[in-house]
Amino acid sequence: MNMLLTNLSTSPQHFKKPYDTDYRELLMDICDQLAETAQFKLCVCDDIAWNVDVRTDLAVFLEHVPSAINSLKLGEKTIISLYEQGVETNIILIPHHKNCYITCEPLIEWARTQWVPKFCEIEDLEHLILKLEVFLKQFLALSPFLLEYKEINEWLQAKL
Fold first, then answer.
1. Which DSSP string do the residues of 52-106 spell out, in sequence order?
2. What distance in Å separates the CA atoms of residue 153 and residue 156, rounded to the nearest whole number?
3. How do the pLDDT tens digits run along the chain, 160 residues long?
4. In this structure, are residues 70 and 52 in contact, taking their beta carbons and an 8 Å threshold?
5. Which of 59, 60, 77 is nearest to 68 (CA)?
6. CA separation for the pair 126, 140 (Å, rounded)
7. Spatial contact of 24 and 63, defined as CB atoms under 8 Å apart
8. 114 CB-near residues (< 8 Å, 6+ apart)
């Protein structure tokens, strides 16, 4: 599994937190600002980039990264659910000893009837965790002010 953010010519500007904001709204706000120039590349199970965008898919992907990292460190199965219209796929990560088996499962009912479960990728578990951590740090470095928000710190600790 590979993920990459490119064309980062602008950094999101500081914004005022709305009264009822949770971490997902903060992520969406940042991704919305990044979408003007940035590109999000995600490849799972092969080298072909998925049709993902920065505005929505990046925010949804990021939503799951801290809990995925924590689960993998504990040796537990985890799912990164790209539930937004378009991708609608679960990326299933199953640690096994020093490896991680990766497979995908469609969320759309009609696609599931034609889907044959198989492990499409095997990665070194520590390497996968490191890739996820580096990706998350790269995103947070674009908007260091995000760490001022309690909701973001709870999300990073996967307490939600």
1. --IIIIIHHHHHHHHHHHHHHHTT--EEEEE-STTT-EEEEEEEETTEEEEEEEE
2. 5
3. 999 988 876 666 666 555 467 888 889 988 988 898 899 999 998 778 888 999 999 999 999 999 999 999 999 999 999 988 778 889 999 999 999 999 988 887 665 555 555 567 788 999 999 999 999 999 998 888 888 888 899 999 975 4
4. no
5. 77
6. 21
7. yes
8. none
